[in-house]
Amino acid sequence: MKQKSIGYLEIIVAVSIWALSSGILVRWISQGAIVLYGVGAMAGAFFVLLYLFLTKRISEIQKSYIWRKELFWIGLFIGLNNGLFFLALKTTTIANAIITHYFAPIVLVLIFAPLILRQKIRKQHIFATVLGFIGLIVVFGSQIGNEIFDVGIILGLASAVFFAWHTAIESKLATNTKIDPLVEVLYKNGVPALMFLPFVIGEIAENTVTMIDFSKLIFYGILVLGISFILVYRGLAKVSSQSASVLFYGEPIGAIILAWIVWNESLNVSVVLGGSLVLLAGYLVTKNKG
User: Fold this and answer.
1) Can you give the pLDDT at residue 288?
2) What pTM did the predictor assign?
3) How many domains does the chain have?
4) Dihedrals φ, ψ of 247, to 5°?
5) Is 199 exposed, middle or buried (0-12, 13-18, 19+ CB in 10 A)?
């Protein structure tokens, strides 16, 4: 039971870091999404590689070679997840992109958990997942666009599929293997870094990146794509992926609250009500003994 509590804490801290990223860091760093994620992933991968070297654990990479295919799929799917989400943000409303992107917990609970993890679909997880999703709709409902077949919505839903998919594979590896979390994060950043490299080079060639901006990108990569990813992997080794995915709903709510505190953005009744539903959903999964 103590291990499970630690797992929930690790997931919650990771989600808090993501909220800090969405609510504050993204605005603090004056670079586009492609450069932010691409350079951040490179920084996260380098940070992990350096840490493995300094702690004389570089051999862990070779030990994990037997699971290279699964690790590669995790890196590829998280890269597709983020890439499609960024495209969704550019082609539809922010509300549409967020709502469709966070359809991922439902996809995970109903599809990938039974198929990949061979886990039973529990009523408690379904209820908490739907409750959290309703909370997001309450928060962003007034901003949702009218286009049902908007390309951005399709992109957002596609990002949700890859979000759920890589989470399921991560959960399987975390619970059934002894892969060093740092090695998993190395793949999780290294593969997307290579995927986005051509786009990053193109963006930097057109726009100047100052040393201050570069330092901020390094900080972002280490904190958001390094430390938080390690916490998620460690957490998934202790709690079910369904429970963790419900806690993921906390990111956009936390981002709104932090933006209200730091940037003086408005905080209306729908945010309070929807956020309360998300918090209730998170409470239900952490108290669930199944």
Assistant:
1) 67
2) 0.89
3) 1
4) -65, -25
5) middle
